[in-house]
Amino acid sequence: MHHSFQPTHYFNTLGSHEPVLKIKSGDTVTTTTVDAAGCNHLGEQVAPRGNPQTGPFFIEDAEPGDTLLIRLDKLSPNRPQGWSAKVLAPNVVNPDYVTDLPNPQDRLATWQVDTKLGTASLDLPWSNTKRLELPLEPMLGCFGVAPTRGQAISTATSGEHGGNMDYRGFKEGVSVYFPVFVSGALFFLGDGHALQGDGEIVGTGIEISMDVTFSVQVLKGKQSFWPRGENDDFIFTAGNARPLDQATQHATTEMHHWLCTDFGFDALTASILMGQAVRYELGNVFDPAYTMICKMPKRFGSVLLEHVHVDQK
Amino acid sequence: MHHSFQPTHYFNTLGSHEPVLKIKSGDTVTTTTVDAAGCNHLGEQVAPRGNPQTGPFFIEDAEPGDTLLIRLDKLSPNRPQGWSAKVLAPNVVNPDYVTDLPNPQDRLATWQVDTKLGTASLDLPWSNTKRLELPLEPMLGCFGVAPTRGQAISTATSGEHGGNMDYRGFKEGVSVYFPVFVSGALFFLGDGHALQGDGEIVGTGIEISMDVTFSVQVLKGKQSFWPRGENDDFIFTAGNARPLDQATQHATTEMHHWLCTDFGFDALTASILMGQAVRYELGNVFDPAYTMICKMPKRFGSVLLEHVHVDQK
Amino acid sequence: MHHSFQPTHYFNTLGSHEPVLKIKSGDTVTTTTVDAAGCNHLGEQVAPRGNPQTGPFFIEDAEPGDTLLIRLDKLSPNRPQGWSAKVLAPNVVNPDYVTDLPNPQDRLATWQVDTKLGTASLDLPWSNTKRLELPLEPMLGCFGVAPTRGQAISTATSGEHGGNMDYRGFKEGVSVYFPVFVSGALFFLGDGHALQGDGEIVGTGIEISMDVTFSVQVLKGKQSFWPRGENDDFIFTAGNARPLDQATQHATTEMHHWLCTDFGFDALTASILMGQAVRYELGNVFDPAYTMICKMPKRFGSVLLEHVHVDQK
Amino acid sequence: MHHSFQPTHYFNTLGSHEPVLKIKSGDTVTTTTVDAAGCNHLGEQVAPRGNPQTGPFFIEDAEPGDTLLIRLDKLSPNRPQGWSAKVLAPNVVNPDYVTDLPNPQDRLATWQVDTKLGTASLDLPWSNTKRLELPLEPMLGCFGVAPTRGQAISTATSGEHGGNMDYRGFKEGVSVYFPVFVSGALFFLGDGHALQGDGEIVGTGIEISMDVTFSVQVLKGKQSFWPRGENDDFIFTAGNARPLDQATQHATTEMHHWLCTDFGFDALTASILMGQAVRYELGNVFDPAYTMICKMPKRFGSVLLEHVHVDQK
Fold first, then answer.
1. DSSP label at residue C91
2. Is A149 in Cβ contact with C13 (below 8 Å)?
3. Which residues lie closer than 8 Å to B140 by C-beta, 6 or more apart?
4. Which of A21, B92, B161, C187 has the fewest Cβ atoms within 10 Å of its own Cβ atom?
5. pTM exceeding 0.95
6. So what's the ipTM on this one?
7. Domains of chain A
8. Measured between alpha carbons, how far is A62 from C64 in angstroms, rounded to an integer?
């Protein structure tokens, strides 16, 4: 079933809040998200700043111990302007370089976002570069499910439940798996970026409101521990923690575990294969928890392709 | 001038050791490297284990404050077998997962390396996967220059001088820039891998001896602080430290600094561009110092291409 | 006013929950806490495990931007037995030492706690040590206030709001300052330890239920950012984060800021003094967020004593 | 035998340098050290800055696999002035606080050091504090032995071999144990501080030249892996690494190992005892490698005292 849902309020935590819509495994939802500052497609602020979330969507039959599969069918910026911070965050440069960072009077830049041309552009009147024009690559910065133990976790950060991961790979066409911690899973989404560099090292992408269509599927009895994903070329896992070393441990452990439980590898073969074939990508290195992505290329022969996840077929 | 150099001894530290050959800026050298265990193309151990290095090569005119440009013209495994560890290193998984890792009697695997087919293959008699066959991607794990302050730094680790970075991108065709800390720079190379996953998370790539051809160029008066590189698609910087957070700070700072000093960006424009366009890749997360790579795509329009590094043309 | 409060239910998050009692600045409360597993003075489990908290107490007049001062007037274990884990946590030893840790069938030990003798003792029938007898040093592992942004934060971890800091210095007689984030502050307490080593490196102290008496005072208009404390010899600040490096940054920054705003130091003098006089102590290195304490000795002359915090007199 | 040794040159790395004196196990040496900037008791610069070391002393019979015991018999500043940095290092405060740090024109302060009164004092003409007067607590910031693998490690950092640990506990009367990595151990010492706060958070103690007397003992066949120490109240271990989490792992592992091999504890008893009795202290959080100290109080009953290290009696 295909739902159209227009949000009337938003949440700044992922928690066990009152659902805005009940849907079923297999359903598709078309909705909208506001930007990180709570502004909608008209640029009106309709929610408090800090990655306000659309949702939560209650998915029937989803129970703790299941996995929720979200496919991002369509992600489209729905207004012609986005904004970004301008200055490298002080935590991503050497401590003794912080005082060398530029200190512009206006900390934010307004980009022109042209979805037809597929570009984000910014005039730089002070610079001999004159103008930046970069290809759009729309993504969701913050989305996930209600966490365990009755927690309500700020949309500033991330964890086993997803949240503010700010990973470029969460874009149109990707499938994302979340552990289910509460009845109905309670799926939230928001914080669209028209474009973002790895690491979100200025502290923002090009922040923008979005039209989003997503589909849900409940994988009954399939247990996962951290967010996972899949696209045409890779399966991947996300670890969210500080420092990056710990995020890397979470993502690597989850990948090894996943290869063994879902893809038919024994622990030793999975370990050997990962050693020579694994890839890593950075989500954010700005938020309270950093995000590391561990990827396994499907192209590495029949090995992985022939074991491809049945739920994806 | 093109030199052919056959090493007779090797070093397990990068330091101000007696040069094995004096060469000039613009010269090319064809030589060989032994594998991480000190074994040559015949599989004979000719040096103590631990990434023994060919060199050092003294480059005339290279003085502290200059930058040494090394182009890896050719990297070719020179024997049909390489070896790897099998088990994920305990520091790359969750601490409470360490006891779940496989514990094979034989910790090492011997891979068949076929440079004609371009594959590394390994039989897995115990496994329902039966056999792994992965595409070769030869690279140098450990190379660099003599460090400052009279130090002799173990080839187990890395720093501003390069060393054991274990980054997949250090492969044929790449240009690598090292800060010069001592007269003659003293360039070392070794630790060839037929293939390696990001992070070197089992603690080795597929370790193998190599035939290597490289060219050198001294960039007089050009100061750099960390290893840098360039390939067809990216310019990049390497930060070497623990934790990854600090390696990320070093690489990010060096990229910002490089964009401003060599590519004509003002500090604010460089910061805005990096925020939305930067990419990161992992070198190793196994050695005493981890390695993070900060990359800037050249394809992001005329912006970077028109400022392309004149020394590379 | 002195209140006696007997809890009937407990919370496993610190959040904006319904208050159990409204009190005033200057009041004193005598109450009880259950142990980390939810067991009371009779050893009956009356709450779900995971540091269930007594409270929240609503303190009238406490508003965001104020500071809440809690004095722990009395902390007394109220049953003769406590329990601890036995084995060093895998995250506090070298990753390659994890498989060398002991692996006892029973992971928990039951200690005899004698408040008259002031000892915790444990028989070790397997060991040539025969018996451990250690001096009691009762403390609260987890206490704090409701966090900002509508969050409900698990009692497993800690943050600006306090929480599961597991610092030995939170014992009888200490004064603790918390930032106020919500109206009424909403103070919670629990997780008593009869004794604990620095770092809580086996993952528990000697866990026990307690009789607790505390007094509250609202410091109107005094803003703080992290938990602070004061005892006869030191003023101190707590930073809660991973890695310890970041916890250290939070605690150090808060101390410098505190010295400047409340003790009359200029920024440079505070910096010089801290450089030569500061002390650090570890809270936990086990929980999701670690805890570092930054201490300034009062004994360093008139300098600090003459500026002593007027609210403490 | 008691040697008097007056150094004529100094080293800025700990490595296998030519010994300045050969001594025997049981010998005592009285010598001098210059300050971190290479200045002697007259304030004359006699060595390049960066913790220049007196030594190395070759200790006969010390072989790899042994442990070298150094007792610091006497540490006495030998001039009336020491210097310190003034400003908190940018890496010890929150990244967004770096730009709030004071930025004095003169980065260094000159302290009056009075060994008779036992004080270090500094006038603060700009400050309402007027003057700081702190009790002396002379210590060695950097000392240790030649490392393994032919390395020459900068005196800016530390490792298994000791080096620039900057721990307040390395003061008169302490016994320090170093692993022996090369024949003769090759002991170095320098970098005296008249006083230092935990963490060396301004990047220096009160830097001063010293008269030092130390005694050496070779513990044949006793293997250690990291620096260890002992004073009247504690045995302790030092872990040197970044981040502090890893330094903590090294120190904790070494303490557990030490308790089991030298003090007769089984692994489980050592683990239980450490959990409830261990203490941690910070060495430096400024140098490339940070230093964490893991301490076990001797006072915790007969348990530890009766197992007291026989070599110390």
1. G
2. yes
3. B33, B72, B75, B170, B171, B189, B190, B191, B192, B193, B210, B212
4. A21
5. yes
6. 0.96
7. 2-80+137-219 (2.60.120.580), 228-312 (3.10.28.20)
8. 38
